[in-house]
Predict the structure of Tetratricopeptide repeat protein.
Amino acid sequence: MKPLTYATRRFGLIAVLVIGTIVAVTPAWADYWYEHYSRAETALDNESWERAIEELQQALERKGDSGARVRSYGMKVVAYFPYLKLGIAYYHLGQIEAALQAFQTEEQLGAIQASRSDFADLEHFRRLALEGRADAARAEGERIEQIVRESLREADIFERQGRLPEAMEALVKGLAVDPENADAVAKMEALRNEVVRL
């Protein structure tokens, strides 16, 4: 057998180093999603909602499916429910519809049912989000009612002063937010009839 030349030994050493580097780097890249998820959990604990959303979106780009026991690195497994965490962050930012969408996605993926505590969190925050949606709808309804009341009040004042065009203009504000409001529609019709008679 011929002895190995310097060039052959050098080439072999370089090949071993390159292969070793590739093997050593691959697990860190493959598990990168976990780093984002871990930072997102820290951000949630610190109530840094925007930061949590950014990190969760990065984690989701790398690993989109949830799991109750997902291997992160080595033998370590974690509960990985990024859409639940995303929904919680959106909820705290007041983005109720985005939160509800995230909760729905997490539940549809199906893995969260395997973790009783995480599923309880999902149900809890979904309930809070639905209550938030109902509160927002109620507040919007009250805001619209206030605009219509104010519009009718202004229209009455202008009508008593004989300023019918201004009265109609005042009613337009109320009808813009609630075009089916019976009182505003009736008042507008009465004002139109009065203008026609003049």
About this structure: Residues 137-197 form one domain. The CA atoms of residues 67 and 81 lie 6 Å apart. DSSP finds eight helices and two strands in the chain. The two ends are 120 Å apart (CA to CA).
